[in-house]
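Q: My collaborator sent me two sequences in one message, no labels, and asked for predicted structures for both. Can we handle them in order? The first one she listed is below.
A: Yes, handling them in the order given. First sequence, followed by its structure tokens:
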Amino acid sequence: MRFSDFPFLRFLLFFLIGILLGRFFSWEALIPYCWILIIGSWFLYLFLVWKKKSLVWITFLGYAQLVFLGLVLSLIFKNQQNQPTPINGAYLAEVQGFDLEKPNSKENTLKVKRFHRDSEWIETDQLVLIYHQSNLELEPGQLVWVSQAPEPIAPPRNPSEFDYREYLAKRGIFSRQFIPRGKISLVKESSSSTFRFLLTHFREQLGELVKDNIPQKESQPIALALLLGQKNQLDRSLREAFSDAGVMHILAVSGLHVGILVAVLLFLIKPLKLKIAARRFYLVGVVFIIWGYAGITGFSPSVVRASVMFTLVVLGELRERKPPIFNIMAFSALLMIAVNPSVILDIGFQLSYLAVSGIILLQPLILKWWYPPNRFLEYIWQLAAVSIAAQLATFPISVWYFHSFPIWFLPANLIVIPLTFVIMQLGIPFLFLAWMPFVGKIMGWLVGFLIQFELLILSLFQKLPFRFQELSIYPTTMVFVWGMLLIWVSWFYFSKKGLIYFGLFLTLIWAGGRLIQSSGFHSNQAIVYRSADGWAIDFWEDGELKSWNNGIKGEEMKFYVHPNRIQRQWRNQPASLKAMQVQAGELFFPEMGIRIFQDSVFLNQKNNIKWRVWDDPTWKSASESPIFPISQSAVQISF
């Protein structure tokens, strides 16, 4: 195995360099010059190839073009994602989806066409997330008039809090709005772009068929997620059941689901013994079915990756060739990143490619640990090896994002994946046959029954002890883990001496990172958190955490306070912080020497105390600014 055997992997690496440069540096003014460099280097490249000049310069220019192209695409997309002009008036908009029922309202997304401000109409193309209470049943393509302006989405108030604004910005949404009854009205039943929503309407119709034919209500959200990629109807308890068992990937339509679809379609062709022309026509039809299914499930990063990869596999069948899997992976990643450079920050994208890479590289090594004596045990061991390989590759980033590790992932996957395979084998034909009254009801009941059985198994796993939660991991540790896995994979292909030196280098990086991180472990500091209705304070002194809560509810603590404690490796069972009530609305904390009013903090000017708003790197001295507000954002205090 040589690196030169995977050209698209090389192309991807240089393309990513340009993407990351554009992502982390504000060089938007350089876009015209980058285009000049791309065009100029392309002509120079063609000239050198024509003259058969040095291969070194030809290679250098080829890779340089990929870097420049990645840089330009990243800068262009980044410029488009900047905060647009605020919509500060009534507006005309196009509905983008079907209403999603919420406890007290209905959720939908609007694309604003124009809004009214200062006696003029302003053209725009912005998305707004709405929650409305009207009697209207909004559908994609309708034009509506909203008589109130939306509000921009606020940034997170507290450190390590989930950044909902950034999450929506990746989807192109920068505003949201609660619309009471009477403030939204239908202007036109459908716009000229109804054809764009053809797949959306078809997906909704399939969803209605699923609901109508599966009698078990608790199975319907799982069926919609498994078969159609509609996860918006899953409640928190269902998500936690799959997450705690380590099988959350089952709910994301990905390679497993597309692979089952392709396996069924390719299995049907085997006994037919078609001629070459008929076989090619059938395989082309399989490609259209793959992308039709990808469109129905919403073109998520994982399903697009799987669709591109299986498309290339099927096209390889047309030519009776099997292209290297890493070329297929790299090519699919190139396409996805070129269309949307910010997809590299998508959790699904990262987990998807890490899991597949782990399965390809690590599963063959894991299989060598044991040679089963019979076929049944061999099947079980192969499935276990896939689960172990995927978890080894993805657990650093899973801990980084979700701060947990599913200890029971292996037995859960050994049971749930085969069961899900059976559900999909029955569920995919069910989608095509659900319109038939008698057949649809029988198949729907069977699908619902199997899903109920799966939920029963997951509930049993939830009751098992020994859960790894509230974990934290640092970037240097992630690099160390992935580096060691690469050394394991490369042990029989590269110089062992060089790999040992590389391992020592990784160990030094990890140790240095831990040393830097632990240097602030005993630094005395306080964090004043803020919610809409209250505040709380954490005081970290010499490795001990003390806390005081003034109005942040228990459920809110999970979102506003706990993430920062986990990230800083503070425990979530703090001691009580001493407080004295000086007067109404004013508390004095003698252990810190500070006073907190309802919306502001007063620091002792005599002590060497500094403070800063948590997302502002600028520190201020208590002697210069002893009083500061806490009404808008959390504050960090250093003693």
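Q: And the one she listed second?
A: Here it is, processed independently of the first:
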Amino acid sequence: MSRPDLPPTPPTRERSRRHSWVRVLIPVALILVWLAGASFGGPLFGKVDEVSSNDQTTYLPESADATKVQALLGEFNDSDAIPAIAVFTSDDELSATELDAISDAVAGAPDVEGVTDDVSPALPSEDGRAVQAFIPIDSDAELADTVSALGEELRSGMPDGVTVYITGPAGLSADLVAGFAGIDGLLLGVALLAVLVILVLVYRSLLLPLVVLSTSLFALCVALLVVWWLAKFEVLLLSGQTQGILFILVIGAATDYALLLVARFREELRVAQDKGTALLAAWKGSVEPIVASGGTVIAGLLCLLLSDLKSNSTLGPVAAIGIVFAMLSALTLLPSLLLLFGRAVFWPRRPRFEPEVVAAEHGMRTTGLWARLAGLIKRRPRVIWIVTTIVLLVGAAGITQLRADGVPQSDLVLGASEARDGQVALGEHFPGGSGSPVYVVVDEDRLQDAADVLLANDGVDGVSVTAADSPSGTAPVTEDGIAPIGAPGTPAPEPTTVDGEVLLQGTLTDAADSEEAASTVRELRSDLDDIDALVGGVTATSVDTNDASIHDRTLIIPVILVVIMLILMLLLRSILAPVLLILTTVLSFGTALGVSALVFNGIFDFPGADPAVPLFGFVFLVALGIDYNIFLMTRVREESKAHGTREGILRGLSITGGVITSAGLVLAATFAALSVIPILFLVQLAFIVAFGVLLDTFVVRSLLVPALTYDIGKAIWWPSKLWRKGED
């Protein structure tokens, strides 16, 4: 037993050796755990389509009329096939020979793998220059491959001068599938390459960017492993859109968290010779802002669970899972790699052990861009924040030009589209809604009442009822009732009934994804309300989706603001600072959305935007944009305790300026990578978030927030202890 009056026994060589082994074994063990997780998750990149769906109806709430009708269609038709419409057009009237060739081609369509036998006959248009045929595709078939093969088969026997299009729900869905095809390879490759280039330019190192990217990629692999199996067991719904956002969010967030830790590690290596001591100090200094930042993003994402749309509500937990693993990789895998490499990770610009130089700097950089900016803010804080606010308000005024009330399904995919061209051709020669009827489910005894409402609407070209004993599966309905089919005197077919209900189909005069068709569906729902009819179909699904998106936007945005504000209050132990940070972030979002609206309308000439675009843009910009304010203000609070608030603001800005700017560039680059996927929603989201992050990084966090807080002084910490006892 050692005597208390004697100095402690110095560590023995054996104890020191044991400590060294522990410092090696723990990092190696953590690296192996992450490597094992990545080895299981990596192969799933090419298998996401096995557990995902891009069918809009599956994302509607169960209470929506379109959802209820969709669930009943299979019972009436005994099939859940996806209809494709083959359109054959010619500049001149089709000859008898050409019509025979078209009929033969349509009759042979079931020979294509994935096409069912219930193919309609070839139906000529009134002008004689076009023919259409309805070709159902099995729901279990590979849709994009089947549509492509069907098009090739039909074109192979066509005479010169006859053009073939495959459109309708199957054709438009195949376009979406093809649009999302680049997510696993192209999107991931572009995002990683963009991050690698930025990291090499920032750190001028070869090894460090690879270490940081490994952290991000391992986090993504493990997150995908968890999400894939949750989707496999139908705990979560996964779509191409959600998948793309998950990839980008994990890479961007994990890299941002890694940059924060790396910056603190480099900082500590200048005052600590031992890499383990430096890493521990860096980890302790980084864990609070990383956890607070990740927690804020997770809280904002989980607010999406309040959404009526499953495409929104399922994104919340999927993306939150990604953020969890981004944080874990930055706080476990990255420190393990840094501990193994030590100063060598920064080669060829290794940080020197120079405590004397650091002491002479008094913990604050006195040269460089951020030191000069801190000096400018010290001299003119009020002018800077007022001018910056005015400029941002001018940009935000453009938000009135944003048209976020939905876009036609045919415009969801950018670039060339056979399905879109086919819709145009269809509208030129047939009623625009051919092949995508409005469905009405009504009690059998109210069949004629419902049919009369449909027939009286100018947006409906014709009405039929599902009838199993009719050769075509339907029978026309007129003002006099169900019309007989065949020779005069033939009795009219009996309508198919399911639990006392019948299924009417109305052919729309306008394209099913047009605003005019949407107006027709709304009118029909209003007129049919008295007879308790359900209205569904492609157009109704679009209407219900847009309505749900607008409801979600109105509900969720205020909830996110309140949740994030409460988190900031707990983190900063203040009320005034979080309120001001939220206001600056909202202003930044408004400016990003306003400028984006002007760019979408004036430069890209987009047809509009999905109602969910502002919601998603808000979630990512506010949740991620507040990250940089957290990185800045946690350091400002730390410095303010020792040097006073105004000095702490200048120190915090000069110290964090470089790392936060680098993080902003990385996040903007990763979101910009979404634009390589030719889906309108993702391209618009990519621009809004990328531009918004850069705006937040270089203007709001670098000028507005520091200048405003410097002008206010220690009152920014009201009502915390730092406000009462701190110094300006």
